[in-house]
Amino acid sequence: MNNIFKIIFSTSFGYAILRVTTPILFSGLGAVISDKAGVINIALEGTMLTSALTGVIVSALTQSTFFGVIAAILSGIFVSLLLSYFSLNLKTDIVLTGIAINLLASGGTIFILYLVAHDKGISTSLNSKVIPNVTIPLLNKIPILGPILSGHNILTYLSWISVAIVYILLYKTPLGVRIRAVGENPEAAESVGINVNKIRYIALCISCILASFGGAYMSMGYVSWFSTNMTSGRGFIALAAEAMGKGNPVGTLLTSLLFGFAGALSNNLQSLRIPSEFVQMIPYLATIVGLVIYSIRKTNMLKYKKEVQNA
Amino acid sequence: MKNEILRMENITKIYSNGITANKGVYFSICESEIHALVGENGAGKSTLMKILFGLEQPDDGEIYLNNSRISITSPSLAIKNGIGMVHQHFMLVPSLTVAENVVLGLEPRNKGFFDYKKAVAITEELAQKYNLFVDPNSIVEDLPVGMKQKIEILKALYRGAKILILDEPTAVLTPQETVELFNQLMHLKNSGHTIIFISHKLNEVKQISDRVTIMRNGRNVGVFNTSDVSENDISRLMVGRDVVFKLDKNIKKLGKTILNVKNLNYTSETGKKVLKNISFSVRGGEILGIAGVEGNGQRELVEIITGLRNYYEGEIVIDNIRINNLSIKEIRELGTSHIPEDRMVYGVAAQGTIEENIISDRFYKKELNHRILMNIKKVSDISKDLIKEYKIKCSSSKQKVSMLSGGNIQKVVVAREFSSNPKLLIADQPTRGIDIGATEFIHKKIIQLRDSGTAILLVSADLNEILEVSDSLIVMYGGEIVAYFDDTANVTEEELGMYMLGLKRQSHDEIGRVIYE
């Protein structure tokens, strides 16, 4: 037990939380935007996986981190178009379409990995690039906070900035007002001349772009390679984070940190003599527990609301 | 006469299901007038206004705005032409503020960002100008209905509407809110706007409108200066009967009381008192009709009696058994049959076969089952017999119900509901939207059932049906029974119309005669 506390109350653990949180936060923000537009983006997981592989391959081919990231994002946009076209134009069920895309990404990435790297498990034979870490001057001098907050990957900082960007987008721009209107009452939006499908296309596109930053971070920052199904459910954990964060960017940041904590704990406890299978379960267990607490609170709130109305 | 601003000529609209909603309708409105559009449900008012607002396309006819022909193919085109509509069901986004709702779709911008301050200023300015006071910063879901309506009007005005269509605006308002709305409408009229006011409520029409257009059966049956006609005149034109057909009926042989409703009160989820102190009874061998303009509590009443709706006050007894806490199945087991108003939602499973639909109320019964498997042959035989008896036009008993015509779908419902030998039949709009042949057939079957001693409650908005089929009738208005006639033969449609529109009501004692023990 003592060992566990020693791990938790160290600056390196704080640093690890932020490191693990990044991809969940990106995807969680993606979930916020699509959810606000009334289209649930189950394909976040597949998007992350696709962009993680694309980033590795293109950065290896071009020997440029920049082009790698750009390609990762383009692949995310491609996935969003696939999802939007089927669910919005052809009216397929968006959840089923999302699941199909996830399965396609899961198998498809292995296939392409094999074609390019001649390996079905890992891309280490490719000389792919990584996105650099940055040390923030002044901040790194502050005791305790410095080692926790400084020295992260550029994308980690971008994910924090994204919280503000998503907030501003949703609440301070005409597009944001329309996204919220479309999500809540599409008929009302349509009656004032808003093109509902167009807004949903845009929302899914932004959602997938955010997820693909998360994907690029996974293979070009968190680690420096692509491995099979490396996102291991982070897209779904992000959906949970979004739901528990009440669809609010700041709330999603907080719940993502919670899952980041669980993830970091799981990574660190593996050094102790606890069965690794158990330890690796922690983030997913945390997701289930979190969702249960969230649902109970929500039902209670609804009950309370009803009582108030009846009184 | 003021200047004509808009004219619709020879508008004809036939829906894909074959119902003709508008037949060569001529409709014209003048600058700054309040023009009432009245008519019963299904008279074609809503269709005409949907055409004007671009929600429906006419099959024939022209629209002229300021004497130049325009075509309105979408709501945004209507808005561009200065036509705005306040829908009966508000088109608002609940979690947004008032100002955000007003400017939605045409948001003021400042360097690409949404200029919320400007939106608030715009809302305040409009509110000031047209006396429609709202707080721009409130969240819409917290506001009362009257406020929401103001926001809808503001939305239309912000988009530059000169012609405002209000679809039954007072239906959801309290009397105080109605008075306020009327003041605002007068104000709008004086500032040069034209208002089309759709309503059933003749006192309101008299009070607010300058002219009135009356529609019946998809036709315009008259345009008058409101001051030249009385409420009775309007009512007569609205509900007058076109075709009268006679049914042969034997003299009724009354049995004991089957359905007894006592002091029924019901408040809807939205807190509106929908049913007020309803008491009546129906005896075996009697058809009691419920007349009334739709939305006066008939639907709720039917849903309560059949068990679809709960949490009411009062008592309902079917064949001496109190049904307040019984499930729908238990109520049916007592011998209740129900022909629901919406046959596609409650009447049939459209994707199921005729057989499956016919046994849906009895599939669990012993005679249709061999231990754990169904007796398919029996099911098929029953269905074939009923198809023959009820003249259902189909290719086989295994055809999907969704492939049948409206009249034949209704016959499937009727066949199922009538063949269970009910003690009580609740028939809610049993012939709505079906052809004359099927209608006549169903009417005959209803009377046959009555002659065999079933108690029948017939709810219909169709006066022909009510007057021809039922033996006695009650009229509902505003959630109350306002009249009872023990013999429909002595009722004229003018008289009925006045009760239906709330112009007249009987004394408490007269209404009380509908209760037997």
TrEMBL record, chain A:
Presence of keyword Membrane: yes
One Gene Ontology cellular component annotation held by this UniProt entry: plasma membrane
Main location: membrane
CDD domains on file: TM_PBP1_transp_TpRbsC_like (cd06580)
Keyword rRNA processing set for record: no
Membrane topology qualifier: Multi-pass membrane protein
UniProt xrefs under Pfam families: BPD_transp_2
UniProt subcellular location: Cell membrane
Transmembrane segments: 12-33, 39-58, 65-88, 94-117, 154-171, 201-226, 278-296
Keywords, in A-Z order: Cell membrane, Membrane, Sugar transport, Transmembrane, Transmembrane helix, Transport
Domain of life, source organism: Bacteria
Molecular function GO labels: transmembrane transporter activity
Descriptive protein name: Simple sugar transport system permease protein
Organism expressing this protein natively: Caloramator proteoclasticus DSM 10124
From TrEMBL, chain B:
GO cellular component, one term: plasma membrane
ABC transporter domain span: 6-242, 259-503
Family matches, as Pfam families: ABC_tran (PF00005)
Topology class, membrane: Peripheral membrane protein
Protein's cellular compartments: Cell membrane
Major location (coarse): membrane
InterPro entries assigned to the protein according to its UniProt record, in alphabetical order: AAA+_ATPase (IPR003593), ABC_carbohydrate_import_ATPase (IPR050107), ABC_transporter-like_ATP-bd (IPR003439), ABC_transporter-like_CS (IPR017871), P-loop_NTPase (IPR027417)
Keyword line: ATP-binding, Cell membrane, Membrane, Nucleotide-binding, Repeat, Sugar transport, Translocase, Transport
Molecular functions (GO terms): ATP binding; ATP hydrolysis activity
Protein name: Simple sugar transport system ATP-binding protein
Organism: Caloramator proteoclasticus DSM 10124
